[in-house]
Amino acid sequence: MADIVIVGILHKARQAFLIAKGNWVFRGCVRPFSRTALDGKAIVRNRGRIRIGEKFRVLAAHVPVELGAGEYGRITIGDDTFINSGTSIGSLASITIGNNVAIGNYVLIMDSDFHNPIDHTLPGAKAPIIIEDGVWIGARATILKGVTIGKHAVVAAGAVVTKDVPAGALVGGVPAKVIRYLHTDTQPLSKP
Fold first, then answer.
1. Has this prediction a pTM greater than 0.70?
2. Which residues of 22-59 are buried (b: 16+ CB within 10 A; e: fewer)?
């Protein structure tokens, strides 16, 4: 019984440490006492505006997570959102990530081309990205500029999202296409 109590105390102490670390690393991005937890390393370049909601969690134990907002870039991350190792989010326009979003390992989210493909000294095209509440994004997926991903959609691992994703859809492939619509309380699984 004493072992269980000690394990519980150690777990709570570790959680408190991860929250303190997260609030420190994301200090320019979070509200005070937001319970942001960071396990591992994050690289934050906030030349624009990065705002993070309550209970944001990052697990980057073996590869850092990167958040970068350029001079006019905005990144907004909602409550209870989770980001896994190696994810990189870069904004020169606007990236909005909703509540209860799960983002897998090595995901790339970019709202800009960052340079012109013909003349690298010129800025590239940019357009806002919106990822709505309850979305799951699989490992190594890429989300490109101008995309809206609807509520409770799932992006399969390795998908490259270049167009809007309807709410409740499962998308996959390069470029990503709707595979099927996911089960809801009122609708069974169905083909697009």
1. yes
2. bbebbeebbeeebbbbbbbbbebebebebbbbebbbbb
Query: In 3D, which of 35, 7, 9, 40 has the Cα closest to residue 23?
Result: 35
Mean pLDDT of 97-123: 86
Average pLDDT estimate for 48-62: 89
Q: Which amino acid is at 42?
A: A
Backbone angles phi, psi at 13, to 5 degrees: -65, -40
pLDDT of 7: 64
Instruction: State phi, psi for 14 to the nearest 5 degrees.
Output: -65, -45
Q: Are 141 and 107 in contact (CB under 8 A)?
A: yes
Asked whether the predicted pLDDT for residue 132 surpasses 90, the reply is yes
